[in-house]
Write a structure and sequence with these properties.
Number of strands: 4
Helix content: 25-40%
Radius of gyration: 16 Å
Strand content: 5-15%
Order of helices and strands: HHEHHEEEH
Shape: globular
Largest sheet: 2 strands, parallel
Strand order of the largest sheet: 1-4
Length: 118
């Protein structure tokens, strides 16, 4: 679920940036109602991620930076199109919604460190 959602979000970001990859890689994405996307279900299932843990892990991995191949015109209507690679490391993801159960992240996970000296 998260993979398709991320693809749609980044496709829209790329379209808003008029297919300018450098601008998209420095974009700001606001995801509203993240609590509803990652809501816990009452009936656990082996085949579905009803806990939303996959969504949360996907967002965390994406915020750390990953390369994603994005269909610039959307994936379903234009399956023959060339995919564009977007690196998410410098994209700011802002999530809104009701508070979820406690999510514990260390400062190292929230603030990337740079190697080297000044």
């Amino acid at each position: 679920m998260w993979g398709k959602m991320l693809e749609s979000i980044l496709t829209r970001l790329l379209q808003v940036c008029k297919l300018h990859v450098v601008s998209a890689e420095r974009g700001i994405v606001y995801i509203d109602e993240i609590d509803k996307i990652a809501r816990k279900g009452d009936n656990p299932s082996i085949t579905r991620d009803v806990s939303g843990e996959g969504v949360q892990q996907g967002l965390l991995n994406c915020s750390k930076g990953t390369d994603v191949l994005v269909p610039p015109q959307g994936g379903r209507k234009h399956p023959e199109q060339k995919l564009i690679k977007i690196n998410t490391q410098n994209i700011l993801f802002i999530c809104g919604g009701a508070l979820m159960e406690s999510i514990e992240l260390s400062a190292e996970e929230l603030i990337p460190t740079q190697s080297g000296s000044m």
